[in-house]
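A quick aside before the break. I want you to see a complete sequence-to-structure record at least once, exactly as it would be stored in a machine-readable document. Don't worry about memorizing anything.
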Amino acid sequence: MKKIKIGIVGLGSIGTRHLKNLAAVLDERNIQYEMDAIRSNRGKPLSSEVAALIKRSIIVEEAVKESYDILFITNPTSMHFETLQKFSKNARAFFVEKPVFDTQDIDLDGLQLEKDKIVYVACPLRYTAVINYLKRNINVKDVFSVRIISSSYLPEWRPGVDYRQTYSAKKELGGGVSIDLIHEWDYLYYLFGEPEEVCSFKGKYSDLEINSDDLAVSMARYPNKIAEVHLDYFGRSLIREIQLFTADDIIIGDLINQEVSFMKSQKTIHFNEQRNDYQQKEIEMFLDIFEGKAENPNDLHTALKVLKLAKENSR
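That is the input. The structure line, written in tokens, reads:
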């Protein structure tokens, strides 16, 4: 394969993580590459570690005149649609950070994407050992009820960063738990498919200094089960798990402690996994899609469907 040209729009914490993982996977596969950091004029100086991995730093107005093999869109959610639209003819494949957009009222035809373009939307929890185990080993027909919770404290998400200045805190930038924590909706869809009906309640209830929603509680109805989804920004002790109720057992997938427990039979399966393990697996999958070795499991249409579930019937 010839040297591939990659652009990365947005180098915050997640963009930087993708950059490092991408470089590691490409090096492992002996694929030559060059990367551009595509930035606004307001961008902060790049760290020496990031600067060592890129060929040049280029502003958006210059980048739209370039051609890329791959473009990563990792800027704030509210800018995803505009960025994808602006670069729609400049790259063969796109990796879009989740959530795909900040609103469900999107006309995909407005992007003017050619049919052969690859657009993959991030869904990293699908690559965790816990979710993979449940996908492979649990028969969805045996599950009567599902409970999902993601509870964490927003000020502790990004050490050294004022949480009040992050996109998560700002509704106008696409912040708010219902879509910021769309991971939970994504893996619910991945495990059980699309529900028949969703009803949600959300709002700002804690004393966090934000204008986005810090709590969302939803019910998703399937023909043979109901799923409850609890998302919040104010939990002072990390909880991220899925509980499955069956006739024989209660199965808990704990994404923080990387384990699956069977409460009745008192069996626990432990996984030795770090966050970057599954993040890197996702990059490997994306490159497989780019190289034509795998089908795209989370294209724009699928990601928009999940976004609509997360925002549907919110009250």
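Two observations worth writing down. The first strand starts at residue 4 and ends at 9. The chain has two domains: 4-121+279-297, 125-271. We'll return to this after the break.
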